[in-house]
Structures are given as structure tokens and as C-alpha cells.
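sry for the spam today, last one i promise. C-alpha cells for design, 283 residues
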């Protein structure tokens, strides 16, 4: 299922180019969207049939007439992988002499949940004079509390997948600072539930800036795949339902600037775009 949050944070299912409003299928509280989502994920296996029946009478919209919201609006944390594709490792070493910055040597880091935005929103660059890069990533949302979960069991704890742009100011500051400015975590276009993705460790990931394709990779080349990274993350901290884990970027990262349109496409998941502007007054 493709689960979307849209318009006033209504809950919807996307099929082809149609959005079915299923807000009424559960006790969905538009003022407490994240906790409603967590509850929904818990009961999803039991209400799947109910949802399918509901679709026949649900109010519908065409996809183009709704505003898609970030599909996971306010997790307790965003866990992010540092260099996790070998080609990206090579490029970081060439440009920034970062060869040792892998999960094995560096562990992982957190991004501020307040940096999340949704499709068609705008990345606001805080420093027009500093290089700020796009990173195309496959991310997933945790379905239930997890601690010390083995890779072989991780699939039981992942509700679904979506695309994530890990925006970063290059420089010497710590990663959480350089990657947590407001608007620095665009996610979308919706959550595709795990059953529909089948194998998350074999998905195409492509990113365009305007007409130029900058990144093109496949998650089969992840150094720590989704499940192994889940094991690593849950060995350190308890993963709460609704938390986001993002798996790291392949090679091809590059700068973005005011006026750019950045489009991320994940195979079997979907695509979305965001805009780029300077923060605050025009410069
Ligand atoms: Mn990243």
C-alpha cells in the first residue's frame, strides 16, 4: 500500500493517480499526526481488509489536486548512515579526504526531526556562500519498538519505505549541525509498505537537479544494507515506532543553489521534488 498524508494531514491511500481518503477508517487525529501514524502502524495488519473495503466508498481526489505532506512528520529521531556506498566513499576521499568516515569506523549520527519537509516544499539555504549538497537516500520508518534486533529479524520492524534527501552544508562542524537546519530533510512522496517493496536492498535510486541526473545507483551496493544497518542502530539505541532510519547516499553528491529543483526517485516507491531558495531575505 502507498500511504500518504495529504492536505490537512488527512490519511490517504494512493493507487495509480488517485488518492483515496481513508481518514475515517481509524481514530485519526489531524492534530496529533505522528501518534496517529504510530497507532495506525500497530493496527495495520488487522485492518488491511477493512481498508480495502473502505476504498469502494472513500472520497477520492486526483493525485495532482492534493498537497502531499511529509509521510512521517515528527519522529522522535532520524538515524542516518555516514558513507555507506563504496563509490561515495571514493568520492568523499578525493574531495574531502574522508576515507575513514564509514559506519564501521564512525558509527552513525542523528538529524533533527525539525528539519523534515514534504514534497514540493522548499529547501532554505542558510549560507549562500557555503557549499550545500544533496544526498539521495532510501529511508524507512520503524513499526514497533526495537532493541538489539538482528539483521535477520529486522524486516519485522520496518513498516515501509520512502525517499529522503539528506541535505548538508560542507565544512568542519559536526554532522548534526551541518545536516539539521530547518528544511534539510525532505521526505516523500509517501510510505510504501514493506510487503509491496519486497526487497529494499535492490532498488534503484536516482536524483536530478533540474534536468541533470546527478545520482544513479542501486541499494544492492549498500555497504550496510537496510537490515544490517537496522541491527547496528538498534544495538546502540532503542528504536521507537515512527522513527526514521536513512541508509546513506551513493556517489554523485553535488551542490544545490537558489532556483534549483531537486527530484528524487526510488524504484517501487515513487518520486518527488523540492525547490531551493536562500533562507530569509533574498541575497
Ligand atoms: Mn547522508
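last one done:
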Amino acid at each position: 500500500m502507498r500511504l500518504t498524508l495529504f492536505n490537512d494531514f488527512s490519511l490517504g491511500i494512493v493507487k495509480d493517480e488517485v488518492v483515496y481518503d481513508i481518514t475515517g477508517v481509524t481514530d485519526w487525529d489531524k492534530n496529533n499526526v505522528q501518534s496517529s501514524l504510530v497507532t495506525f502502524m500497530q493496527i495495520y495488519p488487522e485492518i488491511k481488509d477493512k481498508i480495502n473495503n473502505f476504498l469502494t466508498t472513500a472520497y477520492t481526489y486526483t493525485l495532482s489536486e492534493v498537497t502531499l505532506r511529509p509521510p512521517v512528520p515528527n519522529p522522535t529521531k532520524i538515524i542516518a548512515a555516514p558513507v555507506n556506498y563504496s563509490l561515495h566513499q571514493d568520492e568523499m576521499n578525493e574531495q574531502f579526504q574522508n576515507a575513514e568516515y564509514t559506519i564501521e569506523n564512525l558509527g552513525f549520527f542523528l538529524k533533527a526531526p525539525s528539519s523534515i519537509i514534504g514534497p514540493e516544499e522548499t529547501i532554505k539555504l542558510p549560507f549562500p556562500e557555503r557549499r550545500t549538497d544533496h544526498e539521495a537516500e532510501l529511508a524507512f520508518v520503524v513499526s514497533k519498538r526495537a532493541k538489539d534486533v538482528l539483521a535477520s529479524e529486522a524486516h519485522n520492524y520496518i513498516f515501509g519505505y520512502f525517499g529522503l534527501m539528506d541535505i548538508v552544508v560542507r565544512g568542519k562542524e559536526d554532522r548534526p549541525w551541518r545536516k539539521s537546519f530547518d528544511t534539510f530533510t525532505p521526505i516523500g512522496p509517501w510510505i510504501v509498505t514493506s510487503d509491496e517493496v519486497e526487497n529494499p536492498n535492490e532498488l534503484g535510486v536516482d536524483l536530478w537537479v533540474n534536468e541533470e541526473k546527478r545520482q544513479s545507483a542501486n541499494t544492492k551496493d549498500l555497504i550496510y544494507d537496510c537490515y544490517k544497518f537496522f541491527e547496528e542502530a538498534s544495538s546502540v539505541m532503542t528504536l521507537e515506532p515512527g522513527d526514521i532510519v536513512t541508509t546513506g547516499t551513493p556517489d554523485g553528491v553535488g551542490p544545490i543553489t537558489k532556483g534549483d529543483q531537486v527530484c528524487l526517485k526510488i524504484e517501487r516507491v515513487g518520486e518527488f521534488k523540492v525547490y531551493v531558495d536562500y533562507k530569509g531575505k533574498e541575497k
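The longest strand covers residues 185-193. ok im logging off now
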